[in-house]
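Design job #97: recover the sequence.
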């Protein structure tokens, strides 16, 4: 029988702060800038409703870099906020590159990986 491996990896710390492994700050900055500077000056709630969400919490989370826009929504967001496909693609790709770099540069100890195998 195959044993399921579960890895509990700690996020890296710098000066007592947790460094998030996933990066969303490029898309966050682009969405917030375009929303605020748009001629219609959408509120977070308005933009969320346009995208099919019930309240502004989704856009708030995106703009704070806690999550990204789902890939299937990128074209809609670009259209609503007058963002070129090149701009939105570049932001998402920069975030992905930073995420991969964060994982590559994180030195998970053998003890952490072994601890995940025991569970």
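Job complete. Output follows.
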């Amino acid at each position: 029988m195959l044993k399921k491996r579960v890895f509990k990896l700690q996020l890296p710390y710098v000066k007592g702060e947790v460094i998030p492994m996933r990066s969303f700050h490029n898309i966050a900055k682009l969405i917030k800038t375009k929303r605020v500077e748009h001629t219609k000056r959408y509120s977070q709630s308005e933009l969320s409703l346009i995208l099919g969400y019930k309240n502004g919490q989704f856009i708030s989370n995106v703009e704070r870099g806690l999550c990204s826009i789902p890939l299937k929504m990128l074209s809609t967001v670009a259209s609503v906020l007058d963002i070129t496909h090149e701009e939105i693609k570049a932001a998402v790709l920069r975030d992905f590159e930073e995420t991969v770099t964060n994982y590559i540069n994180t030195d998970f100890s053998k003890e952490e990986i072994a601890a995940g195998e025991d569970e």
